[in-house]
Design brief:
- With 1304 residues, the protein is an alpha+beta fold.
- It has 22 helices and 13 strands.
- The strands form three sheets. Strands 2-1-4-5-6-7 form a six-stranded antiparallel β-sheet. A four-stranded parallel β-sheet has the order 11-12-3-13, sandwiched between helices.
- α6 packs across α17 and α7 packs across α8.
- The longest helix is centred in the C-terminal third of the chain and has 142 residues.
- It is flat and about 225 Å long.
- It starts with a strand and ends in a 6-residue tail after the last strand.
């Protein structure tokens, strides 16, 4: 709940714009007292403006609210209100509103400058400032405080001029209550909902018409899509047929292509044979030419010649490699000679440079030695050896010089330290004397100041003594003491009487009885309301019981129907309680696992069957392929046999024909060999006879005639033998050719025999084994499928049973829920009849209790009035005692002050004498101290000048010596640098390298001459081998050409065999023509299908173009969207109707409840507060302004006996004020749940003393009731001191504010 903590006011009305006025609000009571016109009401105005932004009435747009510039003497004044409060969430917030009022030439201008909200960031602890426009701030602060702006304006912070608004005219009263109840907002919401409901109903009609139109278009679109689907189905069929035709055409085209390729191959083979024959003849001529050009035919084999050539080439390569190696070595030697020459030149340059450095080094050593000797003689450092010095001697002498320099430096430092020590001692002595003189001087001044202070104090104390003496003389201590004792005894007597009466206990007892009576009244009212609403609850109870019985019957029927199946399949009991989800899941999982296991096995068996089927198909194809291959080989062999021998027509005679051909070939070959032997034997006879003239057989000598006759006979025999040899050669060649052709068929025949005897039987055996295995696997697969079908049926049954089980569980849950509702209703209605009462009995009890409550109220008011009288007496006596006691305290304080002042005067006189004596002693000691100080300062200055001269002289000697040492060290460092870099050794190394390079250059020149001689010798040896190589190359070329001729003859023979195997050209051309005719027929068929397909496609295109028309575009989505829009609009319209009714009932109930609560509080407060007897109580009456509307008019009524009268115009000013206050208190009690603040501005206006006291008592009771409520906060502004005294008790407010105006 929200509370206000602190407020700053500056520049508002009579509050000064230059000063900050801060007020802290306490809990539970902040009491502000002051005279009229002091600015008390301004505090309420500032609170209201800070929280709501509303200016007080008659503020003239803010002109009279801000401090007037004319009063301040300025042209512009600024005002600010800063309010710190806690929000409903307990968060600290500071609201700052700033204003400005400017005096123009003819008018004043009011302006709201800025509005700021400050909060604390809970994470960082930093202040966060947010600037708002005024309108935003006016909305933000009521939201933070947890109440509406109307409640803040009309209930919490009400201006004094508007305090009586509950008794103003009806229109004002209605506006105020409507704002407090927020009725206008909800009434507008009801009107908007009603208007929306009407508009939605009109839209629903429009949507229905659109939906009917879209339904027609949707049906037409569906018809078009159906036609498209039918034509597309026909199109797909034609496309399949066309694909089959295209496959056939493709197959025929493949065959045609294969036939054309075969024909082309035949033609190419013919051309290749003729080409190779021409090439063979050309190569044969080339062979003969090469044989003639040979100088010498080598009898070695080709391998030997090639090996010799290879070795020859290797020897040539070795010689050439050697030549190139020698040439490279020569180049390397030339390169090395040039490098050595350049190195020698570079060595000469470096040697000359190093020699110059060595000469400079010797010169430096000589200069260094001279300087060292001069320095030793000049500074008396001792004797030195003869020059030149070695490095060790020079280093020793240099160290002695540097050691001497270090001694001089040390002496100088020691001198400086001793000088500094002497100066420090002299200065310390001076500072001690100076401090002594300064201390005496300061003490003297302090004593003088102290003496002046003591004199001033003596004068002041004398004046104070005279004043205290006058005050003491004005008091009569005896009379004051006597009055105080009498008042104290009277106060004790009155207090004892008040305690003895024990009013609080009696009042608490009465309050307890009233509370008990109120509780009983509430219980009876609740019973009465329950009995009024009992009829609807009983109807609801009977309806729910009927629903419960219906659900139980459905559940029982489902039990009976599915009980057997569930017990048999699920193995669980279907009782009245529900089957657990765990059991259902277990049963379902068991069947699913069994089914999945068998299904996986069936899939594996099916895969095995498919695999075997694939293997069998492969084996069949393999066997068929070999049968086809065997048949093709048989036809090939038979066709060859038929072409060779017309009598041999089957493959079975092949081996017999081959043996006969072999025998025939052997016979013809033996005949030819015999004839050839005879020819070879007879051919030399003619030469022998001509050469030796004898018979070659018997060696008988021939005569000339016999010799000629013998030669002639031999020539005749030779001619006949040659003709016979030709015949025998042809026959032998034919027999050999016939045998060779049959022999070539042997491989084909062996393959044919192997296929028939080995491959085909093995393939048939494997096929039979696969078929047997397929039958076994198929049988196993069928068995698994049978079991799987049974399991599937069981699983389906289980799944079918699980749905009824879920439905039964859902029904069981509904039965339990409904049973609980029935039990609650029965308990609520107390259906067993225990303690039931009639409406008349309840009303009678209510009247009795109300009478009892009124009597208790009267008794309690009498007790409180008696208590107030006694408390007033005690308060008046207490005031007298306090006044006497305060007067006695004042007298005793005045006497003590007088005695104290006398003691102070004596002490100051003694202190003055002592200070004068001390000041005299200090003046005497000041002169010697000053002289001593000046003498020590002069001694210090003289000593400093003397010591500075000595130090400066010694430093000059040390500087001169140091310069000479630096020169020697500089030369020594250069010498050391030469030695460190070993430049002398480098000079020697360079000379040695130069000598080595010159000797190496001479060796290179001699080696170069040797290489040139060896290179010329190797080149001559290479030239002598070329002639031998050329002859070997010619022999190899001849043999290569001869091998090519033989190879071409063999290739021509192979080509002839391929032509024979492919067949004749005419048969291939006839097959090609037949295939071309078949292709033409298929092409005409596919063209016919294409024509039909184009017709269907055109129809589909037309249908689709129709569908693409605007009215059919996205017709399904449009229809579905329109249907959804219609349904959602209908549902929304129904929801609007329900919302309207619910909000209407809620508003009526809220209004009636709040009004009942407000009137109850008003009645109690009126009866507790009002002291008159003419009005029993007051109430607020609300009337509906018309049927069907939720607008109310309000009246404040007063109950006088049995008469109920409107209070406006019939009550006095005091009754009006009291009624307005009580109504505000009741509204605050009802609506300020999140805000415990209430501000009362002059609540006792127009009230007489009894009513004012009753109001104070009522406020005290409210604070007493709210004492446990930490954030209850009451702000009371009054000028009535007695009223303030009555409510401002210490237990509620330890302090109060008194507001007054200053003189300005």
């Amino acid at each position: 709940m929200s509370t206000v903590d602190k407020m700053l006011i500056k520049g508002i009305r009579s509050f000064d714009p230059e000063n900050r006025h801060v007020i802290t609000f306490f809990r539970p009571l902040t009491l502000i007292v002051g005279p009229n016109g002091a600015g008390k009401t301004t505090i309420i105005e500032c609170l209201k403006l800070s929280c709501t932004g509303e200016l007080p009435p008659n503020a003239r747009s803010g002109h009279s609210f801000i401090h007037d510039p004319k009063v301040a003497g300025e042209t512009e004044t600024k005002g600010q209100i800063k309010l710190r409060f806690k929000t409903a969430a307990g968060k600290d917030v500071v609201c700052i509103r700033s204003f400005q009022l400017t005096q123009k030439a003819s008018k004043m201008e009011y302006k709201a400058i800025e509005s700021v909200l400050q909060t604390i960031n809970p994470h960082t602890g930093e202040k966060v400032c947010l600037s708002y426009r005024c309108a935003d701030m006016d909305r933000e602060i009521p939201a933070l405080m947890g109440v509406s702006k109307a409640v803040l304006e009309n209930v919490i912070f009400v201006h004094q001029d508007e305090a009586n608004w509950p008794l103003q005219d009806p229109s004002t009263l209605k506006k105020k209550f409507d704002d407090i109840f927020s009725a206008t907002r909800y009434t507008k919401a009801l009107e908007i909902i009603k208007k929306l409901h009407k508009d939605q109903a009109q839209e629903i009609k429009t949507f229905k018409l659109k939906l009917e139109n879209l339904q027609i278009l949707k049906d037409a679109a569906y018809k078009l899509r159906e036609n498209i689907a039918q034509d597309e189905e026909k199109t797909e069929a034609l496309k399949c047929q066309m694909q089959e035709l295209e496959c056939s055409i493709q197959n025929i085209a493949t065959k045609i292509h294969h036939t054309e390729v075969t024909l082309e191959d035949l033609r190419k083979l013919k051309e290749e044979i003729s080409t190779k024959t021409a090439v063979r003849s050309t190569l044969f001529k080339e062979q003969q030419k090469q044989y003639k050009d040979l100088k010498e035919e080598n009898e070695d084999t080709d391998e030997e010649l090639k090996e010799w050539k290879t070795k020859f080439e290797e020897r040539i390569a070795m010689l050439e490699s050697k030549i190139s190696k020698l040439a490279r070595e020569e180049n390397d030697i030339d390169t090395k000679s040039s490098i050595l020459t350049s190195n020698i030149k570079e060595y000469l340059q470096q040697i000359s440079k190093r020699q110059a450095e060595a000469e400079a080094h010797m010169s430096l050593k000589k200069e260094r030695d001279t300087k060292i000797k001069e320095l030793f003689q000049k500074r008396n450092l001792g004797s030195v050896p003869d020059m030149p010095f070695s490095n060790e001697v020079a280093l020793n002498l240099t160290n002695r010089i540097e050691s001497r320099l270090m001694d001089l430096n040390k002496d100088l430092q020691d001198k400086k330290k001793s000088t500094q020590a002497e100066l420090s001692g002299a200065w310390d002595r001076y500072m001690i004397a100076n401090e002594r003189w300064t201390g005496i001087e300061a003490q003297k001044k302090a004593k003088a100041e102290n003496q002046a202070r003591i004199l001033t104090g003596i004068e002041e104390k004398k004046i104070e003594r005279d004043s205290s003496e006058l005050k003491v003389a004005g008091f009569n201590l005896v009379q004051i003491d006597e009055r105080e004792k009498n008042s104290c005894s009277e106060l004790e007597r009155k207090s004892k009487q008040l305690v003895e009466r024990n009013f609080e206990q009696s009042i608490r007892q009465k309050q307890t009885e009233i509370f008990t009576t109120n509780q009983e009244i509430k219980v009876l009212n609740r019973e009465k309301d329950i009995m009024a609403a009992d009829y609807e609850d009983r109807i609801d109870l009977s309806r729910k019981k009927a629903e419960l019985e219906d659900l139980k019957k459905k559940h029982k029927k489902m039990q009976e129907f599915f009980k057997v199946g569930i017990r048999g399949k699920l193995g669980v009991r279907f009782a009245s309680e529900k089957i657990g989800s765990k059991e259902k899941v277990q049963v379902d999982e068991a069947h699913t696992m069994e089914y999945d296991d068998l299904y996986s096995k069936s899939r594996e068996a099916e895969k095995e069957v498919t695999t075997l089927q694939t293997k069998i198909d492969g084996a069949n194809r393999y066997l068929s392929q070999h049968h086809k291959d065997m048949e093709s080989k048989r036809r090939y062999i038979e066709s060859k046999l038929q072409s060779l021998d017309r009598d041999a027509v089957t493959i079975d005679v092949y081996m017999r024909a081959l043996e006969l051909a072999k025998e025939k070939r052997d016979v013809h070959k033996s005949k030819y060999d015999i004839a050839d032997g005879m020819r070879r034997m007879f051919d030399p006879f003619e030469r022998v006879a001509r050469a030796h003239h004898t018979c070659p057989c018997c060696e008988r000598p021939f005569s000339a005639e016999e010799e000629d006759d013998f030669v002639r006979k031999q020539r005749v025999k030779a001619v006949s033998s040659a003709e016979h040899m030709k015949v025998l050669a042809v026959e032998s060649s034919n027999a050999d050719s016939y045998f060779q052709q049959l022999e070539k068929l042997r491989i084909v025949y062996e393959e044919y025999t192997k296929i028939g005897k080995d491959i085909i039987p093995v393939a048939e055996k494997n096929l039979n084994e696969l078929n047997i295995e397929l039958e076994e696997k198929t049988q196993a697969h069928d068995d698994v499928l049978g079991v799987l079908a049974q399991i599937k049926a069981d699983k389906d049954v289980v799944e079918a049973l699980l749905q009824p089980i879920e439905n039964a569980d859902r029904l069981f849950q509904e039965i339990q829920t409904l049973q609980k509702k029935v039990d609650d209703l029965e308990y609520k209605l107390d259906s067993q009849g225990q303690g039931a009462k009639s409406m008349e009995e309840i009303q009678l009890e209510l009247n009795t209790l109300q009478s009892k409550k009124d009597s208790l109220h009267n008794d309690m008011e009498k007790l409180r009035e008696e208590q107030r009288d006694m408390e007033n007496d005690v308060s008046s006596v207490q005031l007298k005692w306090r006044a006497a006691r305060e007067e006695k305290i004042k007298a005793s304080v005045a006497l003590r002050d007088f005695e104290k002042v006398e003691e102070e005067l004596g002490r100051l006189a003694e202190e003055r004498t002592q200070v004068e004596l001390e000041e005299k002693h200090l003046s005497e000691a000041l002169g010697p101290a000053f002289k001593e100080r000046e003498k020590l300062l002069r001694d210090y200055n003289d000593l400093k000048i003397k010591l500075d001269r000595e130090v400066e002289k010694q430093a000059q000697l040390k500087g001169e010596y140091e310069m000479e040492v630096e020169k020697i060290c500089e030369k020594d460092s250069k010498i050391q640098e030469y030695n460190d870099f070993k430049k002398g050794e480098m000079l020697k190394e360079l000379e040695e390298k130069k000598i080595l390079s010159e000797s190496e250059l001479q060796r290179c020149e001699s080696r170069k001459r040797e290489l040139l001689a060896e290179l010329e010798k190797s080149k001559d040896l290479v030239r002598s081998q070329s002639e031998l190589k050329r002859n070997i190359d010619d022999n190899l070329d001849y043999r290569k050409t001869k091998a090519e001729v033989d190879e071409l003859a063999h290739e021509i023979e192979l080509l002839d065999e391929r032509v024979l195997k492919l067949g004749g050209v005419s048969s291939v051309e006839a097959e090609l023509k037949k295939l071309a005719d078949e292709r033409e027929r298929l092409l005409s068929e596919i063209n016919r299908c294409r024509g039909t397909l184009s017709v269907f496609q055109k129809n589909i295109s037309n249908y689709k173009s129709d569908l693409r028309r605007t009215e059919y575009k996205e017709i399904d989505r449009r229809y579905f969207d329109q249907l959804i829009q219609l349904k959602t609009t209908e549902m929304a319209n129904k929801d609007l109707d329900r919302y309207y009714n619910a909000l209407d009932k809620a508003l009526m109930r809220f209004h009636s409840m709040k009004m009942e609560e407000i009137n109850k509080i008003i009645r109690e407060l009126w009866q507790q507060t009002y002291r008159g007897q003419d009005i029993d109580y007051i109430s607020i009456h609300s009337d509906s302004e018309g049927a069907g509307t939720r607008s109310y008019s309000y009246r404040v009524l007063m109950q006088t006996g049995d008469a109920e009268l409107e209070m406006r115009g019939r009550c006095s000013a005091g009754q009006k004020v009291l009624a307005s206050l009580i109504i505000r208190l009741a509204l605050a009690e009802t609506f300020c749940l999140n805000c415990g603040i209430l501000a009362l501005d002059e609540p006792t206006t127009n009230l007489d003393a009894p009513n004012s006291e009753s109001l104070a008592a009522a406020i005290l009771r409210i604070m007493q009731d709210r004492k446990g409520q930490e954030n209850f906060q009451l702000i009371v502004i009054t000028h009535d001191e007695r009223f303030a005294h009555l409510i401002g008790q210490r237990e509620h407010a330890e302090r109060y504010y008194r507001v007054t105006k200053d003189d300005q």
